[in-house]
Amino acid sequence: MKKLLLKTTLRQALIIHALKRGSVIGGVGILLIFCAYLFLPKTLLSHVGIWIYLLGCGLIAFGLIPYRRLRRLELNPASLVVDEKGLTLIAQSHKPEVILWEEIDSFSYLENKQTYGIGFMLKKKRDTRLKLAEVDLFLPYFSKRAFDELDQFSRDTSSIS
Question: I need a surface site. Which of 62, 91, 127, 136 has the fewest CB within 10 A?
Fold first, then answer.
């Protein structure tokens, strides 16, 4: 039985963009805390200081968590195991998701400014956490090369039209 293993790949530009965006948002959080400490009187800080601190920490976390997720995905990439029966998506913190070839109507490579990956149109709609507006099922961060290998595998097995 033929099998194909595809893994997610992250572009450096995507990681750098997440880091820059996160640094700006986190910097605003640090600046908020710093300016409040310097310019607000102690009497006002005793009432609103905890809220300013929490808001600043929230901004820091909000900015840097997407970068952390991308770095974690880079260290532990998601895998797509393809065989004659179908596809199995294996991601680190989620249970494996199986898609049978019979369920797939078509698939294509999708790319826009923020993300890229493989999109699937399914014959029967199903609930999934991996959705994008144009497709029923979207697997992010799979490269064009991975899509080409998947397309070639599907043609070789002749299981999907």
Answer: 127
Cα 59 from Cα 22, distance rounded (Å)? 9
101 touches 117 (CB < 8 A) = no
115 contacts: CB under 8 Å, gap ≥ 6: 140, 141
Alpha carbon distance 114, 58 (integer Å):
23
DSSP 8-state secondary structure symbol assigned to residue 94 = S
In angstroms, how far is the first alpha carbon of the chain from the final one?
20
Prediction pTM value:
0.77
* Whether 154 contacts 160, CB under 8 Å: yes
Measured CA to CA, the distance from residue 118 to residue 87 in angstroms comes to 12
Selection from 93, 78, 84, 58 nearest residue 138 by Cα: 78
Beginning with the edge strand found earlier in the chain, give each strand of the sheet holding 97-100 in spatial order.
3-7, 79-83, 86-90, 97-100
